[in-house]
Amino acid sequence: MLVELGAIPLLIELFQDGHCYKHSVSVVRKSDAVPVLVELLRDGNGEVRGKVSGAIAQLSYNEADRAALADSGEVPILIELLYELEELKDNAAEILVNLAEDPCSMIQYLKQLMFLHS
C-alpha cells in the first residue's frame, strides 16, 4: 500500500534528513513500513539502497524499532552490504552496531545468521 501511494520516497527523505524524527518513528512502526524498507534494501538499485540503509540506520537508534527490525530478517542483508559501496558499508555497520545494543533481540539475529548458513 505504501508503494502504491508513493510514500516510500517521502519516508526515505524524511528519515535520511532526520526531520521530525521523534514523531515519525511511531508512524513508520504502525504502518508496517519496515518490511517494505527491507525489501527495497534487498532489491533496490544503488541509490535507493543507500537512502534506505540510511533510513534504517535512523530507525535502529530506537529500541522499539530495533525489535521491528529484528523480526524483518534484515541481518543477513546487512552483512552482505558490508562488502558493497562505502555508503552502504557505513550504514550497514551503523545498523548492526545499534542492533547489537539490544540483547533481547540478539537471539533473533543469531537465528537469522544460522538460517543464512544452513
From TrEMBL:
InterPro entries, alphabetized: ARM-like (IPR011989), ARM-type_fold (IPR016024), Armadillo (IPR000225), RSP14 (IPR042856)
This protein's record includes keyword S-adenosyl-L-methionine: no
Keywords recorded for this protein, A-Z: Repeat
Database matches in Gene3D superfamilies: Leucine-rich Repeat Variant
Start-end of each ARM repeat: 32-74
SMART domains: ARM
Protein name, per record: Armadillo repeat-containing domain-containing protein
Organism per entry: Hevea brasiliensis
